[in-house]
Amino acid sequence: MATAKKAAPKKKASKKAPAKKNKLGVKNSLVNNINAHKKKGDSKPKKKSTISKENYDGMENNWDNKK
């Protein structure tokens, strides 16, 4: 008597989890947050900024160093 083998269930391709988004609907990063506020029109003036000039300059230097 011939017995048919059952096919193994197919595995679904694993998907990379999407980046978490904040209240503004952008990926969580300081630069994205700043740009989202700019686009929304409620960005803070430089005087009320919570990031130091040195840190912002450091980020600006790394913007071109994308992989």
Quick overview:
It contains 2 helices and no strands.
Keywords for this entry:
67 residues, elongated, mainly alpha
Can you describe what's shown?
This protein is mainly alpha-helical. The chain has a domain at 30-62. The chain has helices at residues 30-40, 53-62. The radius of gyration is 23 Å and the shape is elongated. The mean pLDDT is 77.
Radius of gyration: 23 Å
How large a portion of the residues is in β-strands, by DSSP E? under 5%
Largest sheet: none
Could you list the spans in which at least 5 consecutive residues all have pLDDT below 50?
Answer: none
Any idea what the shape is?
elongated
Secondary structure: helix percent: 25-40%
Number of helices: 2
Cα distance spanning the termini: 60 Å
Specify the structural class: mainly alpha
Q: Order of SSEs, N→C? A: HH
Q: Would you tell me the overall average pLDDT? A: 77
Number of strands: 0
Topology:
Layout: H1 30-40, H2 53-62
